[in-house]
Amino acid sequence: MTEFLYNLLSFLPTPLATVLIVLLKILLILLPLMVSVAYLTLLERKVIGYMQVRMGPNRVTFFGIKFLGGLGQPIADAFKLLMKEIVIPNGADKVLFLLAPIVALAPALAAWAVVPFGSEIVLTNINAGLLYILALTSLGVYGIIIAGWASNSKYAFLGAMRSAAQIVSYEIAMGFALVGVLVAAGSLNLGEIVEAQRGNVLTWFWLPLFPLFLIYFISGVAETNRAPFDVTEGESEIVAGFHVEYAGMGFALFFLAEYANIILISGLTAVMFLGGWMSPWPAFMAAWPVVGTFFGDGIHWFVFKLSLFVFLFLWFRATFPRYRYDQIMRLGWKVFLPITIVWIVLISTLVVYKIPPWFDTATTEVTS
Amino acid sequence: MFEQTIFYLFSAGLVFAAVMVITVRNPVHAVLFLVVAFFASAGLWLQLEAEFLAIALVLVYVGAVMVLFLFVVMMLDINIAVVREGFARYVPIAGAVAVLMLAAIGTVLGRDHFGLAQVAAPGPVGPEHENTAELGRVLYTQYVLPFEVASVVLLVAIIAAIALTLRGTRQSKAPRPEHQVLANSRERVRLVKAMSPETPE
After folding, report:
1. Tens digits of per-residue pLDDT, B128-175?
2. Angle at the Cα of A3 from the Cα atoms of A16 and A133, rounded to 5 degrees
3. CB contact under 8 A, A188 and B74
4. Among A130, A342, A216, which Cα is nearest to B130's?
5. How near does any CA of chain A get to the CA of B102, in Å?
6. Are the C-beta atoms of A113 and A125 separated by less than 8 Å?
7. Which secondary-structure segment (H or E) carries B86?
8. B46: burial class by Cβ within 10 Å (0-12, 13-18, 19+)?
9. Are the beta carbons of A167 and B133 separated by less than 8 Å?
10. Whole-model pTM?
11. Is B132–A368 a contact, with Cβ atoms under 8 angstroms apart?
């Protein structure tokens, strides 16, 4: 694919062609992502609607085709937000106020650079991929803090303060959960982490790292400020939290960032604990023409696993009441952190002594 | 050529942000410029093929330390005028300290101890070189004692910080989550069958 593009662009100097091809690859990731984000908002409203025994959006269609009822909703919403006036409150820090939504969105998109979609489908296959992911997910909080402070509003400021403390607390549990993955896989490279889980559904890391798997996903919910950890927005207490002063496109960018983060966390959980693009039963009917391809490894498994976790996000929002703030802190520091530390010690023992069935063939030994 | 352009871009950004940190009036802006400075130096480290250090800088300083800095600075309502009051009085002392510092930095980074004549420039190692693994190997073999001593010093600092801010046992009457978690519906809720007089049997 890349070589074909290089041949196609052979009339250009090589560095320019490289830049163009990289830009094309970025577009190939970002466009589907943006469409998914748009339709995730519709999915959320539909799923929560059905869980609460109502229909959800079902009016906006394309060209009045009744069968498509509701499918035009995200597009209509996007248009509405684009057309709205951007209101900058009195006494707001203008530059930071306008900068905050961009700061919130940028890391949520940049993190996709190292996510492996398939065995060869990845934008940059860097060795420190896990660290890069950890660094970028920790940057998302800046958008929220800056927005809360620059709005010059008490509600927004309260939301920002809550968010800062919450995200810093859960980042530690998240980091420790990833240390477990790193020890088990023996690599920081996301592609190699998936390769280390090769086998079937039982050799994926969710089984040996089960507590870390749960902790990583729950911390991910907390990091994205989603229910039941959405005290940052907390409609019933502080109106809309950090984005209470935002209108139009600024507001839309915060939403884009939140949903892009949801998809990112779901994708990362799939990569690190559910074997990424790997099939749960690769040998199952492998010789059959169509079914064999379906049950073989491929990007469709990654998308399927990712969708599973995205659905969990929506399910949580429809069913759990909001955590109280001191309970959030207790959960992060007094429950998750000790469990992760104990499990890291345990998993290190398993890896060092090569305990079967997971780590008997592990190639984690560092040659000195 | 391309790499040099990137280098000068990051360097200029770093110097600009560093100057802004100490000159802007608003402390929140100063903290944010410090974040920009960290980013620029992380970019420079990436160019030196020290990707672990670059990412660790962003992860630790930008992702955690500066968030807490911002948290504190935003809550304080710092009055710049009061902070600047004694400026003229402290200039001589500050000047002397600055000259001393500059002299110290000059000696260490001067021609006699630093530069290409003293330390040979490392060659490029290529993308296959794993910076993280290399660092880990050296830290846990050759430098294991200094590394462990440093971690103990950090632990002492953590305990000291907690001891300084701890104000005895809890005095507040806030509810304790650990008790609340143990509560169950059988102890709290009693279901009784109530019938209004009009209800037909």
Report:
1. 677 788 888 888 888 999 999 999 999 999 999 988 888 766 677 777
2. 75
3. no
4. A130
5. 34
6. no
7. none
8. middle
9. no
10. 0.84
11. no
